[in-house]
Amino acid sequence: MTTWLHDTFPGRDVNLVFARGLPAGVFFEGLREQNREPLAQGEADGWAWAVHDMINVAEDTDYEEVDYGRLCPQGAEVVVFVTEPCSAKAHGPHFAYYRDGRTTLFFSFEDYRQQRVGDNPDHLSAELFAAGVIGPAAECEEWKDGVHDCYEHEDADELRLVRTIADAFGLPSPPLAALPRDPSPLAVPPVATEPVGAVGEVGEARPVVAPGTYAVHARGIDVTELAAACADAGYPARTQGESDGWAWVTWDAAAVRGGEVSQLAGFLTGFRYDERFGGPDRVETVFLSGTPACTCPNGRHYSVQHCEDHPFQFQNSRGGFERTYFNVGRGRETQRHGDLLVRELLAAGIIGRETPAYEADPGFNADGAVTMRIIADYFGLPATT
Length: 385
Prior knowledge:
This protein is of the alpha+beta class. The protein is built from 10 helices and 12 strands. A 6-stranded antiparallel sheet has the order 2-3-1-4-5-6, covered by helices on one side. Strands 8-9-7-10-11-12 form a 6-stranded antiparallel sheet, covered by helices on one side. β2 and β3 (47-53) form a beta hairpin.
């Protein structure tokens, strides 16, 4: 049972729900209409709240989840903590935020640093980053020493996440317990307050990758090693080069399948090439695509691999894993895996709860050039054009 509820409910898997913008009585009755009698309820700080069983315990065969959208008419908000989504398998809690009947934000406590979904997955990203629970500094690297156990600070990290959410929405306590202010062992990164680069400068810089081209940048190996590895895998490079600590190769997008090349970029950093490149964790790669974002149906879902002809336009890999990947332009950056660049994207107004740049100019970053320049600046990538 989670430790951040004001009261515990032994033997029960419960949800904690907050609502505002509708009468408390209507909210409580709406739960009862879906066979969820509140185990505890109240009102404080403008919110009505209730704790109820996750499933309908009165019916052995009724495992339907509550439709919180029905409890959230126009102008209303609902915040949900599913404290024990699967206690038998010890899965972490879920969080959801509904507004005007729609799911604005949803994530699991198990992988919120990799993926958040909803109408605006970045609704709380500024607060989460400021609290140090997302972003590069939020990832624990001590596990690599073979001794450290990340479970030792898991509870502290969970409490810090809940406290950040509660502060962002002004949620009352009770029903939330008094949340300690002890920080996680992980460092808290600085808050992004200044724009990253000037939009007007983007068009003046050489594109990092030319239209109709795939490019892989690698550091930790030289261009001869990179080109040879790609050729041996069946993908001889069209052009190649080396600059600023990065080796790079490119292909004509019409001559190779982008999904296969991006997969190779990830493989180059992992165990398949450890012996060839002289040890593990030696290589880091950045894959960039100069082709349009995929429009096929499966490519429009969050963190779902696109068709082989339309890879994600950006992918960063280390240790054989894709640390972050996403498409660029027209707000596609919100549908990403990983928060490596969350500070820079927030500062540029590309993601976040408020994105006035898009409102001021509907064509802002339409081609993703601003994002591509942010990526290039972050990694220090040389142009391949």
